[in-house]
What does this fold into?
Amino acid sequence: MNLLFDLRMLSLLLGLIALFQCIPLLLALALGEDPTPLLQSILFSLTATACGLLISRRADNRMTPRDGFLVTSLGWFLAAFFGGLPYALHGGLDLPAAFFEAASGFTTTGSSAMTDIEVWPQSILFWRSTTHWLGGMGMVLMMIAILPLLGTGGTQLMKAEVPGPTKDRMTPRLISTARALWGVYALITLVGILGFIVFGMTPLDAVNHSFAAIATGGFSTKNLSMGFFSPAAQWWAILIMFLGGTNFLIHYRVLTQGDWKALTYEEFVGYLIIIFGFTAYCVAVLLRTADWSIEETIRHALFQVISIMTTTGFASTDWEQWPAALQMLLGVVMVIGGMSGSTGGGIKVVRVIILLKTIPAVTTRLLQPYQIAISKMDRQPLSREILENAVATFILSMGYVLCGGLLLNALDMDLLSAMGASLTAWANVGPGFNTVGAMDNFAHVPDFGKIILASMMIVGRLEIFTILMLFSHKFWRT
It folds into this structure.
């Protein structure tokens, strides 16, 4: 391992955080708000950056796969700590809660320890939404895009950060791939901002909510979340969340190459089937149980299914008041999550399809032991490696959620709230169940519980094997 080069990369990451905090700092000055918390946070980050660069000044640009996993894993934890400093320095949150809030932002989870969002300065709330936007596409991926000195080492970082069982490249060169991803991401963000302004939001609210929607994050500037805004704004949020939960490879191919065949990928078709199938069931139940018009019923049902499945976590209404069957359904789509290569969390639609495809293959082998049964996706055979990855990830993730829930329960959280908090942290959704539901917050969670949940968010964002290998003695062998 090249620890000095790893230190340089982590130092540069903190420098990027300081750079992006300059934008809300300027906003604070423009709005006449106290800039001290942001200014102090920037100074702390720059000091850490300078010290790290000084120590690692003689490092060579050599990076192994182990370095990639180490930088990516530690980078997210450091980002959560330094990114949370403005909340702690402002005085509204203590350090564990600030770490929780920043981890929730960077991992695009959207869970919050803030009890009254609307009393916070607009500049702090803007930084809060910015953490969503940075974390949505991935901070390390941004480093690959703007720091050519990474060279071939950038491949190791991308493998460690980009979620999902496949890592398809869009262009021959890694840096071009990273820049193309960020270009598409920025374009959809801009379209989202313009749409929200047209549908009645202030420019600042439009930026905040576009950042959160495309990153499938869920941080809002209002206590009522998207329920505060007009039906038209909610319909627009549905579209942006849907795009955020879609594989960005599809966006790239459709927008730059006119490759509409990308819309026939099995994962995208499965994504559509799950969304509209579950929405239809919600509509059928809500038409009998809710006192809404047909438009309201369809809007709230589609909004919540897409919001939870893409792991955005916005709320257009308090869905905890819905029948228990619908809440259970939202729990299912919470586990499924968005597409691979999207900003969404969860187990990913592609893994669900892979797991389902193993059922007929296993059945065939049992009935006809001598027949070769091959599972395929998009007419391509699924390798044993991909099948094993899907099964192992699902089993480990569910076990991880169970352990997290039991640990939170041991901290005096009721079992339903504890399991809901554990599930929503791992899946990067935001709202859970019971005391951490759609219209509640995580302020009452004990400090140690907040640290546990923040760590679970990061593990969920990077996927469990990225973190798990750090605990293997083989990883640290020289």
Notes: The mean pLDDT is 88. The chain is about 65% helix and 0% strand.
